[in-house]
Inverse folding.
């Protein structure tokens, strides 16, 4: 369980596995950090984030998008990811069709923010939907995400 | 020759004529796809998913004539890098994915009247001073740090804002597409998140393949056009390659997500979610166009601030004013962009959103949208090569309107993935070799970036330009070779 960086002509892909959905989300996020830097120093304070979206895949996309956003505005590279919880739609919200309702999927996570000044890091521009996969398999979850470099 | 074919796995390309290959329309394709390449380049293009991606692009509603892959095409996400897609502005769509994350990523070239002789011996001082003064890398800040009000002004007014604030001169505006201000820019359509990312990055290179390079002109192939562009052999020029930074990246993803939420029907017809498009005439298409135009202005200001700062660095190193060194903008080209343009299609004038992702506008002589300064000779096209291979200046060719909606290539095109490059090259070795063998002085925030951008990871830029020139979409004018290079 964890992640691997995969070849892609212009960009970098992360293939990740986890025993649970929480685990695979955190593994992809750790893969994103590994795309950014080869060595992660032991610095920085932990912070938490919460992201909501309308589907499981969209939640993974928005979680990674939020991490890239936070990197730029906090001037810290988020590393060492822990996903505390992921909640899915309840019966009421799944049956509801109110478009103004809160998105039913939500992830709560923490990460350690390493100040960019202390890193030899490169810029991952964005998470992409290209070839994205998030699948429930026999022994847990698998994900594949291409990042634009 | 007209009936030869090229087999690339499941895809068969039929040769239309020299350097023009067609993937015939079938299934859900709305048009054929075309690839402009020599057989040598096709051998490289077939190695990744470029051909599949250009075929997928033909599924976009309103695709006109054909989706076109430039000679430097390579795999991207959704749309290939080196792709041109003209989508009907009334009945088609506009696709944030087909513009790309780095909205108005592009290149500008600034002339000087210095010669290589005058610079030799000063390379180290110059590269150090550029590196110290031009923000680069992740979290390196920008030339200006601004509040959100300033970001809004930049988004609305582009280089006009830079002029008013002492970062530009009038002449800079006259040598930029749209005079550095894209009309129809709507700052309100750019999210707060995008603005928050952009406000600390105004005037910064970023990292990856973006760079600033001091170059010497090695060849002028066309004396008349070279003179019109102010280029001559041995002259020093400066090339700046970067885009709209986090503001553009965030804008792209904001709209991809909105499309997913609001236009699921159209999205489901497309073979790749990353091609996500908003139907022409929809509110979201209007909103994205306003936001994209604003991000285009942001990128122009970004390159302008870096260029103006470079003038100051040269002033200090060479101890004379930038005006005395004749440091004027030759031209600025965008190579990740969509633009509403009027083209003649089967005898009719049509409004099209021309998407150029890793492709450069290349309008020919006489076209009214070529700035007055170059209207007699054609629009300058700047093609950056890799660190060891040099770059080209082309001019829009007379066949570009017929063949490519007025477009040509944008660079050498990647050949090798970044992970493979890091296994094959070590940044320090690449840097030493460039300096010892080719007198190219490189300074980067990250050794890994140097390895990933090593000359060996790119296609042969000479071959890319040869095809562009032979097709008459972008004609060779001059070639340059690096002297100093800074990157993130």
């Amino acid at each position: 369980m964890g992640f691997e960086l995969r070849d892609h002509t212009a960009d970098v892909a992360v293939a990740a596995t986890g025993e649970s959905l929480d685990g695979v989300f955190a593994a992809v996020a750790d893969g994103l950090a590994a795309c950014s830097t080869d060595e992660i120093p032991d610095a920085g304070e932990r912070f938490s984030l919460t992201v909501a979206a309308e589907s499981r895949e969209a939640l993974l996309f928005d979680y990674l998008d939020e991490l890239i956003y936070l990197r730029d505005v906090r001037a810290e590279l988020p590393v060492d990811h822990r996903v505390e919880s992921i909640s899915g739609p309840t019966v009421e919200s799944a049956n509801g069709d109110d478009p103004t309702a809160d998105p039913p999927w939500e992830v709560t996570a923490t990460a350690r923010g390493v100040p960019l000044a202390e890193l030899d890091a490169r810029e991952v521009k964005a998470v992409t939907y290209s070839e994205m996969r998030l699948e429930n398999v026999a022994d847990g979850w698998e994900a594949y995400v291409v990042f634009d470099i | 020759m007209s009936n030869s074919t090229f087999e690339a796995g499941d895809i068969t390309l039929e040769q239309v004529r020299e350097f023009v290959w067609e993937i015939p329309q079938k299934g859900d394709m709305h048009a054929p796809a075309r690839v402009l390449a020599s057989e040598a380049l096709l051998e490289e293009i077939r190695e990744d998913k470029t051909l599949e991606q250009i075929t997928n692009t033909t599924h976009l509603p309103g695709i006109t004539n054909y989706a076109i892959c430039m000679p430097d095409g390579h795999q991207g996400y959704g749309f290939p890098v080196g792709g041109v897609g003209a989508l009907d502005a009334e009945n088609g769509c506009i696709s944030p994915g087909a513009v790309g994350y780095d909205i108005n990523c592009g290149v500008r070239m600034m002339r000087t009247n210095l010669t290589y002789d005058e610079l030799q011996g000063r390379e180290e001082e110059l590269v150090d001073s550029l590196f110290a003064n031009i923000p680069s890398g992740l979290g390196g800040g920008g030339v200006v740090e601004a509040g959100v009000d300033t970001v809004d002004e930049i988004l609305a007014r582009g280089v006009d804002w830079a002029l008013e604030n002492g970062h530009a001169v009038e002449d800079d505006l006259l040598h930029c597409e749209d005079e550095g201000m894209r009309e129809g820019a709507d700052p309100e359509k750019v999210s707060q998140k995008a603005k928050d990312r952009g406000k600390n990055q105004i005037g910064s290179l970023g990292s990856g393949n973006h760079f600033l390079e001091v170059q010497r002109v090695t060849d002028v192939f066309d004396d008349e056009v070279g003179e019109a562009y102010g280029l001559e052999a041995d002259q020093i020029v400066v090339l700046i390659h970067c885009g709209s930074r986090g503001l553009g990246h965030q804008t792209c993803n904001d709209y991809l997500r909105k499309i997913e939420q609001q236009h699921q029907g159209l999205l489901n017809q497309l073979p790749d979610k990353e091609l996500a498009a908003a139907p022409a005439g929809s509110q979201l298409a209007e909103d994205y166009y306003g936001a994209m135009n604003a991000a285009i202005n942001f990128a122009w200001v970004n390159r302008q601030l870096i260029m103006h700062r470079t003038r100051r660095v040269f002033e200090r190193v060479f101890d004379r004013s930038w005006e005395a060194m004749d440091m004027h903008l030759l031209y600025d080209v965008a190579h990740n962009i969509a633009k509403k343009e009027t083209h003649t299609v089967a005898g009719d004038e049509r409004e099209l959103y021309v998407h150029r992702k890793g492709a450069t506008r290349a309008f020919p002589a006489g076209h009214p949208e070529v700035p007055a300064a170059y209207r007699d000779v054609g629009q300058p096209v700047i093609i950056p090569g890799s660190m060891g291979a040099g770059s080209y200046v082309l001019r829009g060719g007379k066949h570009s309107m017929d063949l490519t909606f007025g477009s040509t290539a944008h660079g050498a095109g990647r050949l090798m993935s970044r992970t493979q490059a890091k296994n094959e090259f070590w940044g320090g070795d690449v840097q030493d070799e460039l300096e010892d063998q080719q007198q190219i002085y490189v300074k980067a925030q990250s050794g890994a970036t140097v390895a990933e951008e090593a000359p060996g990871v790119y296609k042969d830029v000479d071959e890319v330009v040869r095809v562009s020139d032979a097709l008459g979409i972008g004609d060779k004018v001059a070639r340059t070779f690096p002297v100093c290079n800074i990157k993130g």
About this structure: Residues 86 and 439 of chain B are 42 Å apart (CA to CA).
